[in-house]
Every structure is written in structure tokens, then in C-alpha cells.
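User
Take a look at the entry that follows and flag anything odd:
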Amino acid sequence: MKSYIALAIAIIAEVFGTAMLKMSQGFTQLFPSIGLVIGLGLSFYTLSLALKSIPLGMAYAIWSGVGTALTALIGILIWGDPFNIITILSILIIIGGVVLLNFSDRPEKVIEPLS
């Protein structure tokens, strides 16, 4: 459970860092640039903690997929990025991919034939 909390913190910190990247205006604004470094540093640190017990492929897929979807939503809500049916479908496909990947981590049940 601690690993998933660390992963959640990693996602939030990554989304924060990415928002700061936009606000830094090419690293010309000091405080957003500092926020970027802190956000991404915290994100990678907590992701490394999560990787102690969550498989790499799973953790990275969740981190990048959920982070991408949240970042897209923030772009829409804060900066007025384009929002249309393609945007909605794209975000849903990302989330669906993460959900499906979570199911792939479960061991398959073998059904024994009746004799």
C-alpha cells in the first residue's frame, strides 16, 4: 500500500512539475523554474520508492498514463487547451490502457478439464 501512495505522490508531483514547465516560459521565470525542478525531483524520487514493490512496467504505465491524462485536463481547465470529442476519447483511451495493464499483472487462472 505504501508503494501505491508513493506512486500517487509521484504522479501529483509530475503533474505539478509539468504545469510549472508551462509557467516557466522557457525557464525565463524563476519561481516556476524552481517549482519544475522540485516537482520533477520529488516525482522521480517517489517513483523510485514505488518501484521497490510495484513492477516497473506497471508503475511506469500508471505514472505516465495518469500523469498525461491529468496534465491534459489541467491544460484544458487552466490554459484553455483545445477540448473536443477527440480530446475526451484520447484521455479515455489512456485511462483504459492503464486499467487493462493492471489486469495483466494478475496471474491467469488455469481451468482444469473435467475427467
